[in-house]
Each structure stands twice: as structure tokens, then as C-alpha cells.
Amino acid sequence: MSAAMSFESIKAIYIFEMRRAGRTLLQSIISPVISTALYFIVFGAAIGGRIAEVDGISYGAFIVPGLVMLSLLTQSVSNASFGIFFPRFAKTIYEILSAPVSAAEIVFGYVGAAASKSVILGLIILGTAALFVPLQIDHPFVMILFLVLTAVTFSLLGFIIGIWADGFEKLQLVPLLIITPLTFLGGTFYSIDMLPPLWQKITLLNPVVYLVSGFRWSFYSASDVSVWVSLGMTAVFMLVCLVIIHWIFKTGYRMKS
Amino acid sequence: MQPAISVSDLSKTYGSGFQALKHVDLEIQCGEIFALLGPNGAGKTTLISIICGLVNPSSGHVAALGHDVITDYRAARQLIGLVPQELTTEAFETVWDTVTFSRGLFGLDKNRAHIERVLRDLSLWDKRNTKIMELSGGMKRRVLIAKALSHEPQILFLDEPTAGVDVELRKAMWEVVRSLREKGVTIILTTHYIEEAEEMADRIGVINKGEIIVVEEKVKLMRQFGQKRLELYLQEPLDEVPAALSNYHLELAEDGNTLVYHYDIHSKRTGITALLQALGEAGVRFKDLDTKQSSLEEIFVSLVQEPQ
Lengths: 257, 308
Known about the structure:
The complex is a heterodimer of chains A (about 260) and B (about 300). Chain A has one domain. Chain A is about 75% helix and about 0% strand. Chain A is built from ten helices and no strands. In chain A, helix 2 (about 25-45) runs antiparallel to helix 3, helix 3 (about 60-90) packs parallel to helix 6 and helix 5 (about 105-130) crosses helix 6. The longest helix of chain A has about 30 residues, at about 60-90. Chain B has helices spanning about 45-50, 75-80, 95-105, 110-120, 135-150, 165-180, 195-200, 220-225, 270-280, 295-305, and strands at about 5-15, 20-30, 35, 60-65, 65-70, 80-85, 155-160, 185-190, 205-210, 210-215, 230-235, 250-255, 260-265, 285-295. In chain B, strands 6-7-8-3-9-10 form a six-stranded mixed beta sheet, sandwiched between helices. In chain B, strands 2-1-4-5 form a four-stranded antiparallel beta sheet, with helices on one face. A four-stranded antiparallel beta sheet of chain B has the order 12-13-11-14, with no helix packed on it. Chain B is elongated, with a radius of gyration of 24 Å. At the A-B interface, helix 1 and helix 4 of A face helix 2 and helix 3 of B.
């Protein structure tokens, strides 16, 4: 088995996926931007004016990292799951499977493209947020690191969902029933200090808490949990996804009978 | 010379328990057109899918020009182009983009000249900027062939290439296949249309219920299994074959109006003269006669039906 990665193959898949996003610009970029803008208007301006500062930050500014994460998570999962589900559904996957590409190259192509799209989207949303609230980013490199790590990790999760799903319903199920609730309950709109003590403990089981908290720290140097714990948890979650994907390719699960 | 494809002791049992292939051995020589015939569900597509990497084998080995398709899959797959049975294409991509994508997927740099040549050969050049969804079924089939040829494969698999394609396009497709063979490409095609195998193939393999029943050069196969039949159109219908003619194993057809005699054209004595004499002696008179060579289709049907 030749060990070298085929850069051309990765590039082919990557460009193909990015072009697909270009064709569905409205769905990929504009719709999340509009929904985020609505959150800012409702929570930031309308309600936020009546909410006291959280951790010394105005409420409007406080929710920015959480909102970026919200879009980043949902878009990474949906981009990546659809990216690999659709060729399976349309059966064009035959071409990928019969090409001299390794599992790693396939994952690099699909997950790389999905993560790139989410990072771009995250930055656009950040730009949109800057129109509504004054932005302050204390640790820009950590911010980018979180952005990329989260995008990659949840694109890996999306990839797994796209392989697991055997219909459009299942494809929507996980984002709808798991990702969205976890994000809303993960401290997007509040600091977990605001919760009753019992719920503060329970909420620590939610992986999204660590992402939002760490991401928020990169903005305001204030967080619910230590930034290192946040980074560690993200890395662990990514590792779990990688192990599952390794198993998928090893067994040919849902890809090769 | 090393075979283009060598399959040894290949078996496949699907998760459902269905055994699609049973200890298949097959060698396909470089530069030939090999037709794989078999009824639906015989294992044709499973065999191709294993060779091309779409399905994992349960046991056995497959190599393409000596490269194992599992342990040395990069080298093996680089040699192979696959045109699938179903029209599975992207919808929104243009012809040019999708063919370029295929080449990139095989790790090759852009070669506009090669892709232009492929598209021109398949009469797709005028459609290069058309979205695939706007193409007719026959054109989509050509796009699939163009994609399979984009990385200059030495071995091309065509799974039912002319299913649902009109006669004119089918003939055009045959021309494409022939010109590829002239360039030295080994071609393996599966087909339902016996006529297609008869027209194109150098060698024919018949697969049934997961087993290769016969692999033979087409000419030999037709000679070996082919029979001729003599049909005698009677003046008066018969109720049964006269006892005096029982040695000839005649069949009575068409409500007793026709007598049919099977014979082997390659044997020294076909028995025709004796039969005609015997007929005269038995007082059976006929108004006309005709001889027919059994077609590949009849050979195929007899092969597939025999082991019951």
C-alpha cells in the first residue's frame, strides 16, 4: 500500500464540495446570517437591554460567542452529513469507492470542506455581530483555534451521521434532537452560574458547555470552566469521532456491503 | 503475459445470507473484450463491484495486472475505470466539471487535452458546459463513460452499458468500445443483450447462481454449443412422428405441420440425407424446408437452464 497522501484526490473532493456550497449560497451562508441577526435583535437589543451585565459584559456582547458556536455546530454537522449522505443517496459514491483514494483522503476532502465552510460562516456571523454590539477579542489566536477545532470536530460528527443515516429523516434527526438542545442548554444565552447548583453540575455533562465557555474566554477572558478543560474536552470529542470513522472505514459500514 | 484481471476462489455472502458468488475463478486477458452474461441476480454486478472496490469479498483474491485489489488497491484501482449500471450522476455539475473531478479524484493533474479528446470521442464536446440534469439518458450514459475514461484506465468495466439505450446510440456505443480496444484497453462488459455479446465480445463467460458455468471464445462457444436445426414444412399435418422415424429424434411443431430435426454441423454425418430418404419411404411429404443456426441467445438459455 502506498503511504503517500494523494493531494490531488483530496483537492478534487474539497473543491467539489466547496463548489456545491457556492451553488447553494443562500442556504449555506445567507440563511444562518439572517437567523443570527434576528437573535441579536431579539435577545441583544430588545430583551438584552433589560438584562444586567453578565460577568461584567453587556448581555448583547455576552451572547456573541455562543451564537457563533450555535451556527458553527449546526452548520458543521449539517454540511458534513449532507456532503457524504448525498453521494450515498444518489449512488455517485461508487466513484469515490472505486478511486485509488484512502479513507483518510476521503475524510480530509469532505470534512475539510465542511469545516472550512463553517469557519467562513462563523467569521461572517462575527462580522454581523460587530454591526450590533462592540466586539472585543482578547485572545484572537485561541479564538481561531477554537473555531477551527470545533468546526473540524463537529464536521467529523456530521460525517458519521451522514454515513449512519439511511434516509433524510435520520439526517435531520440528530441535529434537531441533539445538537440544537445541547447548544441552547450549553450556555449560549446564559452563564451557567445563573443556574441552580444541581443544574450547574448536570450541565457539565453537556460537551457544548465546554466549547461555548472556552470560546467565550477567548473573547472576554472570562469563562465558566477553565479554558484548558475546554480545549481538552474538545480534543477528546474529536478523538472519539476519529475512532468511530476509523471503524466505519475498516468495516465498510454502510459504505461497502 | 500477465492477465488484466485474475480472480481466484472468490466468494461473496451478503449480510442477508445470500451467497452471490461461489468460488469464482476467472482470468481476463489484456486487450480483449470479455462479455459476462448471466440472468438477473446471477452475480455479475457483485463480481464487478468486488473487483472495483465497491463491495468487500468474503473470501478469495482479485488482482489487476498483478496488483491485489485489497492490499495494493491504489495501484489496482488506478488501472481500472468503471461505468456503473445505473445512471448515477450529479445533477447540477456541468459535463466538463464532473469529468475533471473524476480525473482529480484519481490523483492526476489537470490534462485539458485528454479530457477534450474523451469528450470529443463520445460526442459530448458540444455539451461540455451543460448541466448533467439537462442531458438525455443516453447522453448521461456517455458522461459516465467519459468519467470512467478520464484517468486513462487500461481496464474498463461496463456494467450493462446499453441498458435502456436506443438502437442508434447502442451502435454508437459499440463503436466507442471497439475504438477503445484498438487503443489497447481491456474491456469487460456485462449485458442482458445477448446480441451485444455476440456482436462485440472476443470471449464470453456465463455466470449463473454465483458460479461461472463456462468461459470460452465466442466463436468456439457458438460452434461447441451451437446446433443447427432443419425444419420441414409438411403438406399434411401429422398427429405423431411415424414410428419408422423414431431414430432421428424428431420434434413435431406447429400443430403437426412442421417436423424439426437437430443436427451437429461439425459431425461427419449430419444424417440429413438418410432422414430425407426415410421420410420418403414413410410417405411423409413436405412442401418446403429451412435450416437455422442456433443463436448465442439459445445457447445461453440452454446453458443457464440446464442445471436444474
